Amino acid sequence: MTHALIVVDVQNDFCPGGALAVPGGDEIVDHINAMMAEFDTVILTQDWHPEGHSSFASGHDGKSPFETTDMHYGPQVLWPDHCVQGTEGAEFHPDLKTHADLVIRKGFRRGIDSYSAFFENDQKTPTGLEGYLKSRGITKLTLVGLATDFCVHFSAVDAARLGFDVTVRMDACRAIDMDGSLAAAKAAMRDAGVALI
Ligand code: VGL
Ligand code: ZN
Question: Is-cis flag, bond preceding 184, omega within 30?
C-alpha cells in the first residue's frame, strides 16, 4: 500500500501575524516536518488566489470578513484578502520542509473558491489530484495542516468519497473554529469514514 502525507496550506497567511491567522497555526510545523519521513510520498497544498478573488470580503459591498454570501455554487464564507499569488503571505511557513513530490495550488480561479484539494467549491471541478494519486498507486492518505475545519475537512471528506483510506492527524492540524465549524467538521469527517487520531 502506498501511503501519502498531504500537508494542507501551511502558509504564512494562516499563521500568527498573517492575514487569516489560524490560532497556533505555526505550532504544527516541526511536528509535520518530523512526520514526513514516515511516508512514501509528500504532497503540499497551497492556497493561491488572484488579487480580487471572489472569496475576499473586500470585493463585496457591505460585507465583512467571516460573513456568508450566496455564490452561483452555493453559500460561501467571505474572508480577509489572503494567500494572494506571489505575495509573502502565500509562501509556505519558512520552517516548513518543502522537498515534496508535488505542490498542488488551489483557489486560482477568480470566481470560485477551493477548500478541498480535490474539487473546487462547486464540488465538481476537479483539481487533478485524484488522478495523480490513483495513477501512482496511492491508496492511503494522511492529512495534516490548516485549517482543520475548512481545507483539511473538505479535502478529507472528498478523499474518503473518492475511495481513499483517510486519516487526519488532529495533533498536526489547527482550526479557525467559527460558529461551531470545528465540531461540525469533525462530525462530517467521521460520517464520511475518515479516521481522526
Ligand atoms: C482556508 C479559508 C480560506 C484553509 C483557505 O486553508 O482552510 N480557509 N482559504
Ligand atoms: Zn483561501
Answer: no
147 lines ligand 1 (CB under 6 A): yes
Ligand nearest 79 Cα, by number?
1
Give the pTM.
0.97
One pLDDT digit (tens) per residue for the chain, 197 residues: 799 999 999 999 999 999 999 999 999 999 999 999 999 999 999 999 999 999 999 999 999 999 999 999 999 999 999 999 999 999 999 999 999 999 999 999 999 999 999 999 999 999 999 999 999 999 999 999 999 999 999 999 999 999 999 999 999 999 999 999 999 999 999 999 999 99
101 in catalytic set: no
Nearest CA to ligand 1 atom 2: 150
Give the position, in ligand 1's atom list, of the atom nearest the Cα of 145: 6
